[in-house]
Amino acid sequence: MERISHLEPSHCQLDGLTALHLTAGRRQLLVLAQRLLFYGEIPTDGAFQNLSAQSFFSNGALCGAARLLVPPCKKSTSNLKYLIPGILSAILLLVSVSIFIQRRKRKVEVAIETALLPQLLWRRVSHLELLRATNGFNKSNLLGTGGFGSVVYKGTISDGIDVAVKVLYKGTISEGAFKSFDSECEVLSNIRHRNLIKIIGCCSQIDFKALVRQYMPSGSLDKWLYSQNSHLNILQRLNILTDVASALDYLHHGHGYPKHVVHCDVKPSNILLDDDMVAQVADFGIARLLDGGFTLIIKY
After folding, report:
1. How far apart are CA 87 and CA 85, in angstroms?
2. Which residues does the annotation mark as catalytic?
3. For the chain, which residues make up each domain, given as ranges?
4. What's the confidence (pLDDT) of residue 153?
């Protein structure tokens, strides 16, 4: 091919070839492709720049410049074969990263929510179960009243455990009572101590809220202090005093919860006693959550 200076493949049946772009050493070949069955784009450089339309007569499969009297070439889509997969890959990567971030964010939110609201681990108790446990909140099951007009009933839930049910009805008590319920939930859900009342479950509806807590068979401290039928010896009094002090120290300094807790309503009726006369502090309806250090002023 190096010594060829002129090529005239007219009338040849070379079907399936693209337009010729040949070189002979340093000289461009002159290609006369008349009646040759080529297809594709006609080059415009080298020897092809001087060719006329006559050179490509009857080659309907060719395309190129208008002066060659052939159809214009369609834009090549070969680049799209690589561009489209690249775009799709980028979109897929973006979607995957977005899903990963959302799931990670959701896990963090769940972790935070679980840490701050352990009451989700409490047993969920329905209104119907509480009705059955207290015989329809019968007066014979009434244990007493709590802060903000709440009422406390004794009950036995389905697994046979005796409980005290602190009930608040919207409409029959002040709006502050519902707020106190939220305050008590926040405090009791974040603290654990042997001298603090234990929560077993909760029920929260639009017009009805209830805390199901451990039943204390020995009642409250005020019954033992002010009743003629009950008596506490000096050792029991000291033990109760120690229990209450331990609970308050835990609330103020020792529980590791981000906020310090000030009960604000420590009194004999809010100190409950179990069978062994171990004291537990209850009724956190007006407790205060304080960040960092705090100053508590006690008025007598």
Report:
1. 5
2. 265
3. 6-68, 78-116, 123-291
4. 92
